[in-house]
Write a structure and sequence with these properties.
about 500 residues
Length: about 500
Amino acid sequence: MENEKIVDLQGIKKSFSGVPVLKGVDLALQRGEIVALMGENGAGKSTLVNILMGVHQKDGGIIKINGQEFTEYNINTARKNGIAIIPQELALVPAVTVAENIFLSNRLKGKMGALSLKQMCIKAREIIDELGFDLDPSARVDSLPISYRQLVSIVKVIAEEANVIIMDEPTSSLSSEEIKRLQSIIFKLKQRGVAVIYISHLLDEVFEVADTIIVLRDGYFIDSKPKSQTSQREVISLMVGEELLHTQQALRSEIESQTGQENGEAIFSVENLHLSPERQPISFQLHEGEVLGITGLVGSGKTETLRAITGVDKYKGFTVQLDGKEQKFSNMREALAHGICVVPEDRKLQGLVLVRSVRENISMCRTYRSKITKYGVIKRKDEQKDVKRMLEELAIKVAGLEQQVRYLSGGNQQKCVIAKELLAAPRILMLDEPTRGIDVGAKTTIYNLIRKLKKNGLSVILFTSDVSEIPIVCDRVLVLANSEIVGEIEGKEVTVPSILHFAAGGKK
């Protein structure tokens, strides 16, 4: 059974508006095989998966499922052949129960033909218990935190008894314990003969679960390798090329070479911010031309600190100074007016207007802070010139300025959010999880940009839970735990082990 090919895609081609996205891609999947589909944002992963799901129609190539070739292939064809997906953007109905969501596409009937919620709850409880999840089948989905909604999506697909399950960034909202539980479920599915396509930017996860790793780049099939015959470094090299790897190493070397140099003057400071009455207040300074990292584990107070100092959440008794003058921001608009620009954690909900164009999104903050209007009318030529410059500087791939931003890859969307803030001419740039859910190449572009901004004298605060990126870009880092600063590290001492030492409760 393990050598039986269940999915066989050959030479798949797809274009949108005349722009080639897939350029002859192959994907083979055997029963009981776990294939990791790797590639940068924009490499073609989502398009390939959508073709397999029948959402998009191929322009060329061959689709074979269980040995049968299909000339007409759509969503119903995929579903009838047992192909299902756990999408990155959760497709649930918030106002109904967990059980109803699980059996949404496979309703259970009672004796009189009516929908049996009781029967659904009993059956859902059996599946949930088998998987080891802590879920109440009768709870409404909108009452659950994001991580639990992710679990509902997983149970829903397993209840459909799919032969092929596509998992698109399945651990993005899960805790470390829930990730381990998910991995054990994947191995159980493998034993049952279910094939899994696993899409993730997290290499540690990929090497934990995958049997085979397939790499796409710029719409091309690059390579397929058994996990045992490759390494994380080789996979990254296949995804982005050796040049980007050398760039990251060079960035860290540059920071270490500057150790001992005096910082510029303190231009921004926070004093006596009490996030919790039982904890020590948070106080820190940001110097001109400095990249300051603020990090911590879940619940450390990292995001709360950002929301407090920009006026989103209200805390009393603390002070903020900008250029030596005390300021009090009632909201982010006031912070923006003083040159403090924020790239939010959730680009889709907080950073972009998805149904608007690339041009409108990138120029959004600029129209508020700077003079590209005349008599209240936007100077279109100036606007287009500035947007084109940002597209070039941040290597943002778009079909045109008027393309709706929702059609961009995650990495290009994130770069649009950053471009929007940079066009507002910030004094201080605050980045909240700027590389979450994007590929290695897009991350490196952002790292390069941060160091370039530093050289130009801009001060940056990087709020991140990804400790591996802090040594690449930060001059100094504050480690938070339980809503207080537990460690401060700078220069050559900024390493992943030193950060984790403090985050895990280590002493100074």
